[in-house]
Amino acid sequence: MSSGITGEARTPLTSSPVVNGGSNVPLVPTNTVTTATGLTVRTRIDPVLTVDDVVRQLCINLKVKDSPSNYALRDEADELVTNDNLRRKIKTKVNLKLVNAPAREARETAEKLKLRDDATTLKMTLFTLQKYIREEQFAQSFINCSGLTDLIDIIFGAHGNTLAYALTAMQNLMELDYGWSTLDDAFIFQVVQILSSPQSLINVCRPATAILKKLVEADPTSAPGTQLAASSSRGPPILPPDSVYRYGFSVVFEQMRKGVGFLETVISRLGSADTAMAQHSMMLINSLLSHASDTRWEEFIAELERLNVRKAVVRLMSSHTIEDLTSSILDFQANFIRVTYRKKTTLIEETEPSHAAILQAIWTNSKLTESVDETGQLLKWRLLGFDTENLEQEFNDVGVLGLECLSKFIDMDPDFPKIIQEQLSRPPARRCPVAKASNEVVEMLSEHWAIFAPGYSTSTTFQPFFLDFYKVHSLATHFFIRMWGDSGAASGDFSRVSALVRSQAKVALRSENVRPWHEVEHDFTECEYRRVRERQMKELEQDDDLLSKVPVRNLRAKLYKESFEFVRQQRIQCLMQGAWFVNALPPNSTGSRDSTRRPSRPWRFMRLDPGLKYLHYVDSALKFAVRSGLEDLPDRIEVAAISEIATGTCAAPPHVLRDQSDLPPTFPPVASPLSFSLLSAHEGSLADQIAPDQSRWADWTDGLNMLRRDGGHVSSKETAGFVQALTEIGLKIKLLDLSGEMVELPSGLIAGPPPSNTDFFFSDLM
After folding, report:
1. Which residues contact 363 (CB under 8 A, 6 or more apart)?
2. d(C-alpha 509, C-alpha 450), whole Å
């Protein structure tokens, strides 16, 4: 049996003798190996050997004088050959190169960075560094040689492509969970300044944005094992001194505040013609939203609102044509549902300076004068339409969100004082309680957009009207006031008018991912009372009025969260069971006939490990029965490295389409609706797969999204439908319990014989 490699290097390309323990049986070469001097030899490498053994025997056969530990093997793409991928390299007959070992290459690279005597040499060194620094052996040696210090110095002084390469090298180093814990506030501020400059090149901004995102996410609570520890103990997690999980939102935000125009510049880049730049900017904003600390949350959200980030994303919704941005936009949408929920559940405190300032602005813009009523009690906020003077009680159900909506409603309408005076001129029983109506509309819209709890968004489509929440609220509140007047409502008709507005809101906000805004405005401003009432009567014939009651709506919200969590666990279980997928062409190569872009093997089996940290997989020419566990799955992808799950982005290679009867044979291949890509902020696409059917696609895309720390978003209508269906079924069961008082319903009735005498009916009457 062969146990080695062949090697007889006499010409630039020659066959090498077999090293096989004495056997003289000729063997077919498996690979070619090229040395640094340009010598190329054909070799047969035994797959049972380790990489160290292969390199040692190569050095012996090629009469290399240096120690074999100074050398390593790489393929033509400069990927390091390791024990994990050696057998695959042999099977696919990849051309190999005998090069410096990562540790030796790192030492030489660190020395070159110290010299910096030639700009061209420095640029080439950094270009090489950004490729190799992802490797643990290289990175460890580079750090030990103080290379990180020199890299940081270069970032502080370089410009143009040199700076871009240096930042990319730092970005790639930060993929490792060690080695960059010494990055200080000065470095973070330097990256902030780079991003704050509108003149910074796109290839500079991309890695700089990714670095800040990584720093935001490297907070102590994200360290491996801390979530489990937090559940069993109190207090902050205890981390080792050299842990990189020492940064987080608060550390980065302090430096962001010092950078003039930082957030403004990042938001402006959402409209960049460079899709990757727009995507990196969106991912940074999403990361900041997901990790914002309680102490800086209000300040950060207020700054985003001031800079109209919602409007920038709405423009992106209507203008983008590249699927790569869809997932990031849906993540942003889900993040702002969390923001809205937090505002809604933050109680009003009249002594809180920010709340007091908004209340004072509301009162000033109303142009009212406080007085006393006939009982001598203060009459102030009741003039606006509240039931009492206790504002903390009045805003109890809508919180800061209700307060902001009322303030925006007044700001958007310069005639608001006239509206209030018109209501005050009517008899008390006929006045529309404007402030109370405003809060009721907030409740309606929160229910419409399922703002029940953070992390439970199931929207699979864009919701531009939701991002214009304040504007929709203003339209709906004006509609409430108009319906009150047109219907001749009195004080006891509040719930009736509320039902009218609820019915109209459903119509006006339908299909919001495709409806233009002017149609929404028309539905609220032009629709007559008679038409709304007629449609509502038809709806009441079909729907149970009980479902619109406040206790039932609260019950639905509770069941919705339980249903979401149930579906989340089911999806994650599907990931742990594993599934076969087609290996697809990467994004942006779906029309290429280049055979080198094709995956080497058409099938991939993937399975999530029990610890929920890695996706283990194996590529194969044919499907086979995969055993339980991870023994058959030699390769893996770290779940934490997946920053986005993009859908509909890739296609099956043409040769796979021809070979597999269950896939449509089309060429050029088009992006499959059942495809998905696992994207990393640093490495691009980690995996490109096509599911065998819609159900498997929904299980995996939504399962991977739900696995993310920030909850992600739901991609499939199937999963969203499951959550809704479980919610409605649970609601009906609960209502049966309430209305039937837990009475067991018989499964069938058996009629007995008719009575022989019916005279008793008449005798009772007489």
Report:
1. 380
2. 13
Q: Is 301 exposed, middle or buried (0-12, 13-18, 19+ CB in 10 A)?
A: middle
d(CA 366, CA 368): 5
In sequence order, what are the beta bridge partners of 13?
A: 40
Number of neighbouring beta carbons within 10 Å of residue 745:
6
DSSP string, 497-565: HHHHHHHHHHHHTTTTTTS-HHHHHHHHHT--HHHHHHHHHHHHHHS-GGGGSHHHHHHHHHHHHHHHH
Task: Please calculate the CA angle 697-701-702 and round it to the nearest 5 degrees.
Answer: 110
* pLDDT greater at residue 553 or residue 604: 604
Q: Which residues contact 675 (CB under 8 A, 6 or more apart)?
A: 584, 647, 648, 649, 650, 651, 688, 689, 690, 691
Cα separation of 323 and 673, whole Å? 11
Written as six digits, the tokens of 55 are: 């390199």
Query: Can you tell me the distance from the alpha carbon of 314 to that of 466, in angstroms, rounded to the nearest whole number?
Result: 10
Token couple for 736: 């049966």
CA dihedral 496, 501, 506, 510 (to 10 degrees): 160
Q: Which amino acid is at 132?
A: Y
Hey, which residues does 638 pair with through a beta bridge?
Answer: 614
Beta carbons within 8 Å of 590's beta carbon, 6+ residues apart: 650, 651, 668, 669, 670, 671
Strands (E), 639-683: 644-647, 675-680
* Sign of the C-alpha dihedral computed for residues 365, 366, 371 and 377 taken in this order: negative
Q: Which helix (H) or strand (E) holds 231?
A: helix 226-232
Cβ-based neighbours of 330, under 8 Å, separated by 6 or more: 459, 460, 462, 713, 715
Distance of alpha carbon 735 from alpha carbon 231, whole angstroms = 35
User: What are phi and psi for residue 719, nearest 5 degrees?
Assistant: -65, -45
Q: Measured between alpha carbons, how far is 714 from 410 in angstroms, rounded to an integer?
A: 35
Token pair listed for 345 = 């559940």
753 has a pLDDT exceeding 80 = no
Better-predicted residue by pLDDT, 1 or 206: 206
pLDDT digits (tens, 9 = 90+) for 49-106: 999 999 999 998 888 888 999 999 999 988 999 988 888 888 888 999 999 999 999 9
Beta-carbon count within 10 A of 436 CB: 18
Sequential DSSP letters for 578-641: -EEEEE-BPTT-TT---GGGS-SSSEEEEEE-TTSSEEEEEEESS---PPSSSTT--EEEEGGG
d(CA 718, CA 716): 5
Pairing of strands 378-379, 579-583: unpaired
Q: At what angle do helices 434-448 and 416-424 cross, to 10 degrees?
A: 120
pLDDT grade, residue 555 (50/70/90)?
confident
Long-range contacts of 294-299 (CB under 8 A, 24+ apart): 295/250, 296/249, 296/250, 296/253, 297/342, 298/354
- Please, what is the average pLDDT of the chain? 82
Residue 414, preceding bond cis, omega within 30 degrees? no
DSSP state of 651: B
